[in-house]
Amino acid sequence: MLSSLNQLFGGELGRIFTSFLVIVAAIFLNHLNVRYQTSPARSQAKRGQGRQQLVLIKNLIILSAVSMIVMIWATKIAGVAISLSAFAVALVLSTKEIIMCITGYSMFAMSRPFNVGDHIELSGVRGLVVDVSLLNLTLSETNGSHQITGKTIVLPNSLLLTAVVTNHLGLGAFVVGSVRIAVPYAINRQAFNQIALETATAACEPWSEAALRHFHRLGSRALLEAPSNKVEIFWEPVDVKQHWVEIRFLVPASKQEQVAQQIQNQIWDRYGEELAATNQA
Known about the structure:
By secondary structure, the chain is an alpha+beta fold. The protein folds into three domains: 2-94, no CATH class; 110-167, Roll (SH3 type barrels), CATH 2.30.30.60; 174-280, 2-Layer Sandwich (Alpha-Beta Plaits). Helices cover 56% and strands 21% of the residues.
């Protein structure tokens, strides 16, 4: 079969031209797949199911294209692999870390899990991405409030192959912010809910509609459910003395910590005296 393919493709130029056609065809088919899955005609389908079909068909297209290219170049690959196998083994062993760093950069360039200027967390380190070179990644360390501490951290790109990357600005201009407040178990939950809801809603009102439109566009492109622009409040019991109250809201990424502090301060201003009285009791 391989010899017949070799005769069909007729030499190096034929292989190069055919490989180019396979790549173009794969890109075109994937474009049609994305257009179909995100078309208005598919808007009634479940977003999760559409996303699964999109990823499945994309992977099948990539696998088919890679398989065809390997078959086209199989005879050349086999000959080169045999002659260079011993040298390749020695080279890989001596330059393993460099190869992993370059591979990590290649993965970053293709998938773009983050960009320069994003706040990320990688291998237990949190910081602002300052630079991504061929071999390493430079972060300006930040604290939990995304404030720069002044320290510079350099990490090898090989970590991108194995470590979990958390992009705190991965949703674009708007993110889902949250505030956690500890309140006594005996607090008037209904009254506290009302005050927290009114405070957070008033703080987020200026960008509420813009945030909703942003997440609808994001959900349409990625076939994901868009979050609501309404403030949500969740109670989590800790022990017999207190609850954790988590308030979630949509907020511009650049104002996340500022708005969180504003909401927390205003809640304490409106309800702080009653909370203090309950604690004393």
